Amino acid sequence: MELGYFLSSEEQKPNQLISHAQTAERSGFKFIVISDHFHPWVSQQGESSFVWSVLGGIAEATERVSVGTAVTCPIMRFHPALAAQAAATVADMMPGRFFLGLGTGEYLNEHIFGYPWPGYDIRREMLIEAIHIIRELWKGDEYSFYGTYFTVHDARIYTLPDNLPPIYLAASGPETATLAGQLSDGLISTTPGDEIVNTFKDNGGSGKPCFGQIKVCWANSVEEAKRTMQKAWPVSALSGRLHVDLPTPKHFEDAVELMGEPEVPEDSIIGPDPDVYFRAIQSMQANGYDHIYLHQVGPDQQGFLEFYKKSLAPLLEQENLITDSA
Which residue in 14, 200, 228, 284 is deepest, having the highest Cβ count within 10 Å? Predict the structure, then answer.
């Protein structure tokens, strides 16, 4: 099992993201994932930088850690040909270290050009077509494509890495998990339990990496961590179509306001006790995730990274969940 660190583009400025990536590598994390958003979930998160510029900085600032998007949507805001070129460039900048995480997106980020927001079935078909285009362009030949959703005319990507990056697919339900098993090189999911992983493996994903997220908030006390979660990530209690179909941060803020005080789920991983984090990681591993990444909510990324290096990593090594993190 490998442990990773999540960079939240919605919460941190570009240079902070690059600095935290460098510190995470030095702290022993084996991989890093970064969100690809046009908007934050809510305005108080305050940021949403262009991820491909940040990835260039991370490529220069790190040496060993693997890095990938979680996730890029190549069907509206990015044409798949542009996503293919961007990913190929970053992969060339960090040889053997980049992976491309793809998904069907959220209206929050994809509506900005005014195109109609398709239902899931259409977005799924668009993603299938987009992945085909990306893989064809990565062959390095001149390529044209006239599909149901996309057109590519006389395109060729000249800057290609020696080794092409793997494509991992995000899934939150069994239908997308099935698609991920059939078309991708690995799975990315924020869904707990084992249903998504099992569906992925049963549909061609056996032996492929499974990336799972744990949202955490380290602080000096549980009470402080709870306050940080409520302020920095009040959308924790929202689920289902709300996450996918609301168009602006203001709509998310309105949805949170209707619920009253932002809810912090009872099973949230918060506070200073490393045993709580250990049990959550152990549970994710038992559910089939072999690449688990931690999303520290709030501004105190440095405090969390120090906690990981000094308290959590030694415990994980002692229990043989990870190898030496140094």
Answer: 200
Q: Of 10, 244, 250, give the one whose Cα is nearest residue 117.
A: 244
Q: Quick check: is 295 catalytic?
A: no
Q: Does the active-site annotation cover 106?
A: yes
Provide the angle, in degrees to the nearest 10, between the axes of the packed helices 14-27 and 51-61. Answer: 40
- The answer to whether 134 and 84 are in contact (CB under 8 A) is yes
Annotated active-site residue in 106, 110, 129, 136: 106
Q: Please name each of the domains of the chain with its CATH number.
A: 2-217+272-318 (3.20.20.30)
**Running along the chain, 326 residues long, what does each successive block of 10 average in pLDDT?**
98 98 98 98 97 98 98 98 98 98 97 96 98 98 98 98 98 96 97 96 98 97 96 86 92 92 85 98 97 98 98 95 73
- Choose, from 37, 39, 111, 291, the residue flagged as catalytic: 37
DSSP 287-312: TT-SEEEEEE-SS-HHHHHHHIIIII
